[in-house]
Amino acid sequence: MFKKSTTTGIFRKTWIFKGSFFLSIAIPLILLMTSLEFFSYREEYFHHFQQQYHLTEVTGRSQRELDLVSKDLIDYLRHGERALMEKHFNEREITHMEDVFQLYRKGRILRNVLLIISVGILFAAYLGKNLRILLKKTSRGFLLIWLIMALFALWVVLDFNRAFVYFHELFFTNDLWILDPKTDWMIRLLPENFFSGIVLRVGISFLIEFILIHILFSILGKEKRNEFSKND
Questions:
Q1: What gap in Å lies between CA 107 and CA 78, rounded to an integer?
Q2: How far apart are CA 227 and CA 12, in angstroms?
Q3: How far is the C-alpha of 216 from the C-alpha of 213, rounded, in Å?
Q4: Model pTM?
Q5: DSSP string spanning 76-120?
């Protein structure tokens, strides 16, 4: 009887550790990818950026044309219909956007898988009456994620250009992302500061969401008197 109880306790602690470790990584990724997708689809941001940086003059296109291209870019990121790109860009630009679409598609799949597994872990913990301790352990795991994010954010702020280049070198297997302003008007439409603006918005949104999630997990993970005292 004692041996069985000990084995069950070890299994429970192992399960909680693995579950909290997974959640501490999965939840920030879910929030980050959701924020990125949200701000990538904001036509208002495209329009505001184009007016702020006078892209009608830079590109030689009217604001109406730019708004149409922006809408088609967003629709393409959602659905991947090549015809949307063929109306506006050359073959090199289109091929690069196909790579971009694949990143978004895989990101959505990964986000959804992580979300399903996370909900499953939380539900299983609830049924097993382990939810409180799981949330507490996960909130502690978030502290390491905060440290990693702080170091990454510092790098991006100090050298966004290098971070931007490294991102492309990491996620793309070709050099199609290196465009020539003389022949590829996409780079005039979407210059580097366009992406730094999105990164800033994604970062602020993610920061607020993650803080709220961390606070929620910390509050819900608080022990009642003597509860789970043997598990800490």
A1: 12
A2: 15
A3: 5
A4: 0.85
A5: HHHH--HHHHHTT--HHHHHHHHHHHHHHHHHHHHHHHHHHHHHH
Alpha-carbon distance of 218 to 130, in angstroms, equals: 15
Q: Which residue has the higher pLDDT, 165 or 114?
A: 114
The one-letter amino acid code at 23 reads: L
The string of pLDDT tens digits covering residues 132-165 is: 999 999 999 999 999 999 998 888 888 888 888 8
For residue 88, give both structure tokens. Answer: 């506006």
- DSSP for 121-152? HHHHHHHTT-HHHHHHHHHHHHHHHHHHHHHH
Judge contact between 138 and 23, C-beta under 8 A: yes
Please determine, for residue 113, whether its predicted confidence score (pLDDT) is greater than 90. yes
* Type of residue numbered 164: F
Give, in order, the Cα–Cα distances in Å from 202 to each of 36, 67, 137, 177. 6, 22, 27, 21
Distant-in-sequence contacts of 146-154, Cβ < 8 A, 24+ apart: 149/28, 153/203
Specify the residue for token string 């991947």.
80
Residue environment code for 8-21, b if the CB has 16+ CB neighbours within 10 A, otherwise e: eeeeeeebbeebbe
